[in-house]
Specification:
single chain, 186 residues, Nucleoside Triphosphate Pyrophosphohydrolase, 2 domains, seven-stranded mixed beta sheet, three-stranded antiparallel beta sheet, 10 strands, globular
Length: 186
């Protein structure tokens, strides 16, 4: 299978394209959603011995979600982007950052690649909570290792990048996280 051509069918906050593919001599059409790449980080506050998450309304999920800090990659530099997002969303400046993994979120239809990091922080330098001009209304959630891995959370994790980050942490610590509520009702 190979891509013969693409055509932008919508270009707004996100971009949609029609993709013409050739498979065994036959042309087929598919749609492609381009939201840009993302950088995300699981934060650990070394002073408080807690993990830091953000809670915010996600219009596509139609609910608030608890997530790792994240943002759209700027200037093709995911590490620089996530360092900026950590400060904007939580008010912390990273003391240490470690790259975990890069992965596609939904490669059947979406171009997004998430660049996932682990970051250690120790002191707030800014207010946090997101940017007003980006209409972010972010609540900070802090959890101990025990709360994160051993108890069902009051706000179950339903975001893939966050679940991947928590699973990575559990593997790193040699632990098995408590099963969360798995069904999503829409």
């Amino acid at each position: 299978m190979k891509i013969k051509r693409t055509e932008t069918i919508y270009n707004g906050f996100y971009t949609f394209r029609k993709v013409i593919l050739e498979d065994k001599g036959e042309e087929i059409e598919r749609e492609q959603f381009d939201s840009g790449g993302a950088a995300a980080a699981l934060l650990y506050d070394t002073t408080q011995d807690k993990y830091i998450f953000v809670k915010q309304f996600r219009y596509s999920a139609e609910t608030d979600l608890v997530e790792v800090v994240a943002g759209v990659v700027e200037d093709n530099d995911p590490e620089k982007t996530i360092l900026k997002e950590i400060e904007e969303e939580t008010g912390y400046k990273a003391d240490h950052i470690e790259h975990i993994w890069d992965f596609f979120t939904s490669p059947g239809a979406c171009t997004e690649v998430v660049h996932l990091y682990y970051a250690e922080v120790s002191a707030k330098t800014e207010k946090g909570g997101g940017l007003d001009d980006e209409h972010e209304n972010i609540e900070i959630i802090t959890l101990t290792e025990e709360e994160l891995l051993s108890h069902p959370l009051s706000h179950p994790l339903r975001d893939a990048k966050t679940i991947i980050a928590v699973q990575w942490l559990a593997a790193r610590l040699g632990k098995i996280p408590q099963k969360q509520e798995t069904s999503i009702k829409k």
